[in-house]
Amino acid sequence: MRVGGDRSGKIAAYRAQHFKWTLANGVGEITLNRPDRKNPLTFESYAELRDLFRDRVYAPDLVKVIVIAGADGNFCSGGDVHDIIAPLTEMDMRGLLDFTRMTGDLVKAMRGCPQPIIAAVDGVCAGAGAILAMASDLRVAAPAAKTAFLFTRVGLAGCDMGACAILPRIIGQGRAADLLFFGRSMSAEEGERWGFFNRLCPSEQLMDTARDMARTLAAGPSFAHAMTKNQLNTEWAMSLDVAIEAEAQAQAICMQTADFTRAYEAFAAKKKPVFEGD
User: How many helices (H) and strands (E) does the chain have?
Assistant: First the structure.
């Protein structure tokens, strides 16, 4: 049994309190579910999302891919104006720093969980919602998606929850500066052209597209996917020589997996490999 395997039962039976969570055939789905207010986050949903992503580290056999979406045509409008923004104006510096560290911890948890995360974005994707999409590994969007890192429009810096570190690596320094300084909305077409969105599809096909991507990944070599995600994260701060050595070690580890042997045997038998993640 793998380390943390005793948590698998709890994770399988997990019932989210501040959003919807479903798990089927290795694909976990998070649905932000406050559609009347365009699915904003609260103190509690920030923390529960952080804990969910952190706990998935202990269930690589059970959860192979995670899809995150919003209910009823919008992704996420960011931090709830009444439940979060208003209380923040009354906090002291220690309370504010506790909050900003907690929100950043959500991004750390998303980047640290071994499963690929796919964001399915429609409608409003603003503030912390834009960060959730940014922190995902892959992003698919409907034409109506409007993504805004709007922090400067509410008197804050654009450097929120890792935006100044992650966004330039996705779309480039100049484009990131444009979005983070002006706080303007990025259209779905612009987002695809810039490389923020991997795919665009009609709204009615959005979830089917995200699920198809998730099922394809879930049927693949999940240990190797986790290794790919780890290297994408860690090689940001490496020189080329160090990165090449790290990838040599990572690939040698993957060559010891049963999935690597299965792939060879399937190829030799002219069959499609069936990966099991070990």
Answer: 12, 9
Q: Do 122 and 145 touch, CB atoms closer than 8 A?
A: yes
Which helix (H) or strand (E) segment is 65 a member of?
Answer: strand 65-70
Domain count, the chain: 2
Tokens for 85?
């923004």
Give the whole-angstrom CA distance, residue 29 versus residue 66: 6
What tokens were used for 56?
């998935």
Residue type, 34: R
Question: Could you read off the pLDDT of 246-277 as tens digits, one per residue?
Answer: 999 999 999 999 999 999 999 999 999 999 98
Residue 178 lies in a domain: yes
Is residue 146 within 8 Å of residue 100, measured between CB atoms?
A: no
Query: In this structure, which amino acid lies at residue 233?
Result: N
For residues 78 and 59, membership in a common domain is answered with: yes
| Dihedral of alpha carbons 154, 158, 160, 166, sign | positive
Per the CB < 8 A criterion, the answer to whether 40 and 83 are in contact is yes
The verdict on residue 273 lying in a domain is no
139 and 212 within one domain: yes
CA end-to-end distance (rounded Å), the chain: 12
Show the domain range for 161: 5-218
Q: What is the pLDDT of residues 78-97, one digit of tens each?
A: 998 888 888 999 999 999 99
pTM for the predicted model, two decimal places: 0.94
Asked whether residue 246 is assigned to any structural domain, the reply reads yes
Residues 191 and 77 in one domain: yes
Q: Provide the CB-side half-sphere exposure for 239 (13 A, CA).
A: 2
d(C-alpha 182, C-alpha 180), whole Å: 6
